[in-house]
Amino acid sequence: MESNKGPHGDPGTTIRYAPWPRPADSPPGATGSPVTLSVNDAPVEVEVDHRTTLLDLLRERLALTGSKKGCDHGQCGACTVLVDGRRVNSCLLLAVAVDGCAVVTVEGLARTEDADGDLHPIQRAFLERDAFQCGYCTPGQLCSAVGMLAEARSGQPSVVTDPDLAADGPVPLTDEEIRERMSGNLCRCGAYPHIVEAVQDVVS
Amino acid sequence: MKPVSYLRAGSVEEAASAHGGRTEARYLGGGTNLVDLMKLGVERPEVLVDITRLPLDDVREQPDGSVRVGATVRNSDLAAHPLIRERYPVVSQAVLSGASGQLRNMATTGGNLLQRTRCAYFQDLAKACNKRVPGSGCAAIEGVNHDHAVLGHSPHCVATNPSDLCVALAAVDAVVELAGPGGGRTVPATEFHRLPGDQPELDTVIRPGELITAVLLPALPHGAVSHYRKVRERASYAFALASVAAVLQLEDGEIRHAGVAFGGLAHRPWRARRTEAALLGTRPSPESVARAVEAELAEAVPLRDNAYKVTLARDLATQVLGSLSTTA
Amino acid sequence: MASHANALGAPIERREGRAKVTGEALYATEYTPPGCLYAWPVTATVARGRIASLDIADALALPDVVDVLTPESAPRLGTSDDATLAVLQDAKVPHHGWPVAVAIADTIEAARAAAEAVRVTYATEPHESVLGDNTADAYRPEEANGGHPAERRRGEPEEAFAAAPVRVDVRYRVPPLHNHPMEPHGATVNWHDGRLTVYDSSQGSDTVRSVLADLFGLPEEQVTVISEHVGGGFGSKGTPRPHVVLAAMASLHTGRPVKLALSRRQLTELVGHRAPTEHRLRLGSDADGTLASVIHEVTTHTSRVKEFVEQAAVPARVMYASGSSLTDHKVAALDVPTPSWMRAPGEAPGMYALESAVDELACALGLDPIELRARNEPGREPDSGLPFSSRHLVECLREGARRFGWADRDPRPGIRREGAWLTGTGVASATYPVLVSPSRATVTAHPDGLHVVRVNATDIGTGARTVLAQVAADALGVGVESVRTEIGSTGLPQAPLAGGSSGTASWGWAVHDASRALAGQLQCHTGPLPPDGLTASADTKGSADQKSAYARHAFGAHFAQVAVDTGTGEVRVRRLLGVYAVGRVLNARTATSQFIGGMVMGLGMALTERGSVDPASGAFIGSDLAGYHVPAHADVPAIEAHWIEERDDHLNPMGSKGIGEIGIVGTAAAIGNAVHHATGVRFRELPLTPDRVHGGL
Fold first, then answer.
1. Is C400's pLDDT higher than 80?
2. Per residue in B110-144, pLDDT tens?
3. pLDDT at A167 over 90
4. In CA terms, which of A90, B233, C83, C571 is 20 to 30 Å from C436?
5. H or E element in which residue C574 lies
6. B225-327 is classed CATH 3.30.390.50
């Protein structure tokens, strides 16, 4: 049941964050702490205000502005990044809480294991399908798609998955599955139909 | 958000001691609700105790056939776990009906039980809200209350509980396991959340400093079937207008066990005991199911904008129970 | 060279695409100049009154807080035509959400905390914020948005209606709607050496420059506004919005660069919204469907800050021949945030009502709704009497019917059941006016074969860089890959906004003219090009703004198939198809995306989107992206967009009509008509959420 295949691997059925049960180094009462994390495979050591979200750390401190702030409250998905291989809303993750984790943002997708160093296949598919217009939701859509593909491969169901489907195999990604699984990423330009096509291109 | 201290707990004991039952302390789980509310100024903790790395992150079968879900098991892992998918489809479906893939990857089981209402007046510091500021009034009662409660509300609060998971937990008679300064205890899921009464600031019966360590799912009766169905204003990624979790077991065409709960209708997941009583021992027909559902909703008191919830919940539950009774 | 002349229309990949999928594209608040501060507005929590007290002591005491600007300490502004920009100038509160202070801090966290710590009390006055209770106070404005006369009357419409053998007299309601572009309105502003450099999320930076110059008393040459990438606008970034003024004030006050982005809740009350509209439609026809009378009366709201009147009755002046007609607007000035442009202002709500009523008339007549429309096809524009430059509405309807399989449709409502679901199909027409404004542009031919187009166009997601390169390549007769486009800065030749579906026509016209001029120069030129190349410029003032002798509009047809769960009232769109007649389509790929995007927003208008005013506070309550439901992936089926070949020589040198808005027009009506066909019930208030539909079945 346990697997922890690293930042970009197949997440398996039960996924744990890296075992890291240690108190923060900062003294009691401090309102900031040093954190160490990996961002797009580069080590980052930085002192953060405990209120700082991972999104604001990326955008305002690390100059990684690819991750977007659309709502700042987990309501739009534009801030989606991968933390230890799983897609999450970086606007609701405190940076101090991801101490020790491996973060992949849109800027790092091209260097993940499915990619060729130039573009990740999902990035290429988005270009080919014109799966965006203004581009502001796009990094979140891309990171979400990468995380979602791994989830389906590992057999995680969605609410539209046939309940009788065996729990130990991958979930076939119909258009309906893709739509449901990508629903945490809003796109006001309405590129959804092309996004589904782009994801299907990568599936097949 | 004001400056806040942070401690990453390595054990339940360390977490409980760091929290100490102080009003200015909060346990930090997935953060999907707490960080949201901190940004809005609704939650103003001075101490955050991060419990996400406690060893409470597994789903395990117990010797008595029940299943123990650790409090920090992420929602997506809970929904995907083979034990949950096979034995408690209603729980898996409820989790998957909520939020988004990203949020489910973050949110924890314990945090799901403690999420606050999505009442827009609760979330807006400028509006009167007895839940946020006891005694300040309730702007929702006369306000835009389309999304609010129709059952069990009080003149002090008409908020609803937003959780999908908790509706399923109520229907399967889950038990909440707590650790606290005074030791551990368990509370049935149906009694964990409160009705607002004159203390709407209390969502649950949790005591200061107590920490949810697990949720226990008792074995369902042999041959029981279950389902969760939710109606919302878009096809995904929205809170429930109304939802139903149902567990049925039939023998020789007669209902032997029924667990039914409503979501989106009340300050807590609403266990439909009257419906269950009316169903037990009957051979279900569309008419008998409809009557059983109406028995529960007869006491609904809608507000100006939400009378639709009563008939919607009625038809939804009738649909779900009718369909379950033909597959059971 | 002639082999290159077909760059126009080709489905060329968007040029900024790579920057967008790699995260390299920079939006307004993604520039962080050294020493940059963060600003966070404090907004009013009452609907009407004055600030009674404002205490910033607690805020200033917080760590990393630099200052809090208030109406007392904020810089005085020069005058502007736009009263919504006169922020922090006095203690008056004209609506909920109006800025009353701005906190400035070294970090974003501290700025937010400081804003939260500002204590404000108000002397309130009685207010009215909900349209409906105040319709009696509504007045007829001088004109509606777009300069349209509020009232137009032709013949004796009331009498003709009363005498008509078949009549439809119905009312429709559209709630307030929020633009909600994915990128919140934000700006990074840097005052340095008497100059103002602004990165703004705007649909038109030249206007931002001129307005900021006026407000801060600067010559325009000392102001640079950059909008390189813009995360959507849909009208809400069409003119400067208060965020950029507040950011500029904060930068002027502190002498440091300042970044400010509105929160979702703040922006719904500060950047405009689509005003709610109440429609009364009266259609009277002969027994064969020939319209004797078309009466469309609209009531809407505006704020007390500025009059904005959603011109929802205007499309009825364009669409159908009729013996007589009345189109009229009334507006109530309420204590609400100021409404403004949202994708197809006027047309979107107006055509929802008109096209729903036409469907009702078709049902009353027992006539196919496409046939009814065809029977009332006008020879000239009904209101103006002008000839159409081109009009292929009926062709769109027929082509859509063919593609959709309309011929097999059984018109009887409420009879197609699949378990709990009822299914149905619906159709509606679409229209949008041809708008165009003067623009300047330059095109330079370099010795290395590169051609550089310069124009301060804005790419809000349309692919402006790409299509303008196609226009230039076509006019120059060169390969499109040899053309580079520079847009998105006031340092470039002046150009109008990306709005009103006019951007490509306006910029493209100037690019075309400059390219043709350059081509002429190149023909005469002998020998190698000078090191800086040869440059030609164009200014279409005097040509693009010439009044046309024709009525110029794009037309289209929308078809929808829906399924309605009779147990829960949930409506799912299973199929959406649009066919358009929009002159020449300049880039098949990006045009398809715009059409589909418009239809998706129309789907949201039909099914999920509802702004709500809290009567007690005058607030848009639940207006963030959790409470206000823009469509999600799961709401949206595969969508088809097609167009018919349309040649129109009365438009612009490219022969194109605007395409950014027509996709939303009529889509809600097509879906609503399909819901009627599915259920047999006519719902006349949007959105068609489960509460309404379940209750109505």
1. yes
2. 999 999 999 999 999 999 999 999 999 999 999 99
3. no
4. C83
5. strand C571-581
6. yes
- Contact across the interface for C601 and A59, Cβ inside 8 Å: no
**Could you tell me which residue, A114 or C128, shows the higher pLDDT?**
C128
B5-50 folds as 3.30.43
Summarised one tens digit per residue, pLDDT across range B231-287 is 999 999 999 999 999 999 999 999 999 999 999 999 999 999 999 999 999 999 999
Q: State the ipTM, two decimals.
A: 0.97
DSSP state of C386: P
A200 touches chain B (CB under 8 A): no
Any A CB within 8 A of C109 CB: yes
The predicted pLDDT at position B47 comes to 96
Closest CA to B148 of B314, B262, B309: B309
Give the CB-side neighbour count of residue C461, counting CA atoms within 13 A: 37
Residue C110 tokens read as 């501290």
Predicted confidence band at A25 (pLDDT cuts at 50, 70, 90)? low
Q: How far is CA B147 from each of CA B100, B261, B266, B308, rounded to the nearest angstrom? A: 20, 18, 10, 10
Domain assignment of residue C544, yes or no: no
Residues 6+ apart with CB under 8 A from C400: C406, C427, C557, C558, C559, C577, C578, C579, C642
A-proximal residues of B, 138-157, CB under 8 Å = none
Query: Using CA atoms in the order C268, C271, C276, C281, what is the torsion angle rounded to 10 degrees?
Result: -150
For chain A, give every domain's residue range. 2-106, 111-203
- Domain identity same for C671 and C690: yes
Q: What is the pLDDT of residue A26?
A: 65
pLDDT at A22 over 50: no
* Residue C372 dihedral angles phi and psi, to the nearest 5°: -60, -45
Residues A17, B52: C-beta atoms closer than 8 Å:
yes
Q: C691–B146: do the CB atoms touch at under 8 Å? A: yes
Q: Which residue of B has its CA nearest to A23?
A: B8
Yes or no, beta carbons of A136 and C182 under 8 Å apart:
yes
User: Sign of dihedral through CA atoms B125, B128, B130, B136?
Assistant: positive
Q: Is the distance from CB of A195 to CB of A131 less than 8 angstroms? A: yes
Three-state DSSP at B291 gives helix
State the alpha helices, DSSP H only, in C121-187: 157-163
Longest dimension (CA), chain C: 78
Cβ-contact B26, B45 below 8 angstroms: yes
Q: Distance between CA atoms of C538 and C453, rounded to whole angstroms?
A: 11
Architecture of the CATH domain A111-203: Orthogonal Bundle (1.10)
CA atoms of B81 and B59, how far apart (whole Å): 8
Q: Which of C72, C371, C661, C685 is catalytic?
A: C661
State the amino acid at position C251 in one-letter form: S
Q: In what order do the strands lie in the sheet with B5-8?
A: B5-8, B47-50, B25-28
Output the CA torsion sign for C410, C415, C419, C421.
Answer: positive
* CATH code of C630's domain: 3.30.365.10
Spatial contact of C571 and C688, defined as CB atoms under 8 Å apart:
yes
CA–CA separation, B200 vs B134, rounded Å? 8
Query: Given C615, C635, C691, which is nearest B234 (Cβ)?
Result: C635
- Residues C147 and C114 grouped into a single domain: no
| CA pair distance C87, C241, nearest whole angstrom | 10
Instruction: Give yes or no for A13 touching C (CB within 8 A).
Output: no
For residue A113, how many C-alpha atoms fall within 13 Å in the half-sphere facing its CB?
9
- pLDDT tens-digit map of A49-96: 999 999 999 999 999 999 999 999 999 999 999 999 999 999 999 999
Residue with tokens 């031919």: C445
Q: What single-letter amino acid sits at C366?
A: G
- Determine the Cα–Cα distance for residues C505 and B229; give it in Å rounded to an integer: 49
